[in-house]
Amino acid sequence: MEAAMGLMRRMPPKHSETALSALLSLLPHHSSDLLSQVDQPLQILCDLECGKEFILCEYNRDADSYRSPWSNKYHPQLEDGPYPSPELRKLEIEANEVFAIYRDQYYEGGISSVYMWEDDNEGFVACFLIKKDGSKTAQGRRGYLEEGAWDAIHVIEVGPEEEGNAHYCLTSTIMLSLTTDNESSGTFSLSGSIRRQMNMDLSTEEGHLCNMGKMIEEMEGKLRNSLDQVYFGKTKEMVCTLRPPSEVVMRLPDS
Question: Given Cys at both, which of 147, 148, 195, 226 links 173, Cβ 3.0 to 4.6 Å?
Answer without folding.
Answer: 195
